[in-house]
Q: What sequence folds into this?
């Protein structure tokens, strides 16, 4: 095992350097390369911080207060240097993580702690990948999966849905959160909360709300049915008084004429069926179908368009 002198003098071991070299030789897109360059620096800093932490702990475990106080100046200097180095490295780690956040926000690069905007930009793709991977799942299953994932802020497990979107999310390999200072922990905690708020909104659209049970890392979520707001009863007077041509135009735009055309029956029978639906005589239905009835006016079409727009309905003309 390396000692304190080796770490302070040489930094990365041959194994660590070889690991980073292998990553550097991967074939990546330009955006991946930009992300990777920052990741590689962060990775090296975390390796050093972890090793310094282990050596300092082992050193302190072997020494009691009396031995430390009576130790040589050389030992005290080395210990002070290691503490100072560890402090500087953790500061570098914090700076790099925040730089990664800013850069990935600018290039819309997805990773676990990306901005809420980047997450929302990739949300539909994440959902699609999840539903493709688990063909027996539905949208609410996906939302619960995502919410639970963000609920555990210290979760370093791989999110399979995220991996389908970004298979080489190197940051998921690093437990960088343990090195974050108080301000940065708070920053990412609030960011996590924004993503959970967004997911709650999507859950609410499906008629459910979230209830969290338990504390700490044992928190679990359950769904509660949200009672729908009762809409007032619609009355006949609430419907527009469309004329014959306007009613048939809606009928046609909805594609009902094509459906009736596929029926295995006589043409006269088809006119009768359309007449029943439109409350018209078969003869008038025939004229409408053959375009021999009085044509729609521009005003008639305008009224139809206004009503459809008001109802947020988009139909082919």
A:
């Amino acid at each position: 095992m390396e000692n304190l002198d080796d770490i302070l003098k040489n930094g990365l071991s041959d194994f660590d350097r070889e690991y980073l070299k292998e990553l550097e030789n991967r074939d990546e897109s330009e955006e991946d390369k930009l992300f990777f360059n920052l990741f590689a620096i962060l990775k090296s800093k975390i390796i050093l911080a972890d090793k310094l932490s282990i050596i300092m702990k082992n050193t302190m475990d072997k020494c009691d207060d009396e031995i430390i106080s009576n130790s040589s100046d050389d030992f005290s200097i080395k210990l002070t240097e290691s503490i100072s180095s560890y402090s500087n490295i953790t500061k570098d780690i914090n700076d790099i993580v925040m730089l990664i956040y800013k850069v990935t926000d600018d290039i819309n690069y997805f990773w676990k702690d990306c901005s809420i905007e980047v997450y929302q930009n990739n949300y539909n793709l994440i959902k699609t990948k999840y539903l493709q991977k688990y063909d027996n799942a539905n949208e609410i299953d996906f939302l619960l999966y995502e919410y639970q994932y963000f609920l555990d802020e210290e979760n370093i497990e791989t999110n399979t849905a995220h991996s389908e979107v970004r298979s080489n999310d190197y940051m998921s390999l690093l437990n960088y959160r343990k090195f974050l200072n108080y301000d940065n922990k708070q920053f990412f905690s609030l960011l996590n909360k924004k993503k959970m708020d967004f997911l709650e909104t999507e859950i609410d659209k499906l008629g459910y709300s979230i209830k969290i049970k338990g504390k700490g890392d044992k928190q679990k979520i359950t769904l509660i049915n949200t009672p729908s707001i009762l809409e007032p009863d619609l009355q006949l007077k609430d419907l527009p008084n469309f004329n014959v041509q306007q009613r048939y135009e809606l009928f046609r735009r909805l594609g009902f004429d094509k459906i009736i055309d596929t029926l295995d029956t006589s043409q006269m029978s088809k006119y009768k069926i359309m007449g029943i639906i439109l409350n018209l005589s078969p003869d008038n239905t025939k004229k409408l179908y053959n375009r021999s009835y009085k044509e729609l006016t521009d005003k008639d079409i305008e009224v139809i368009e206004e009503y459809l727009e008001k109802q947020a309905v988009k139909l082919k003309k």
Remarks:
- Residues 1-12 have pLDDT under 50 and may be disordered.
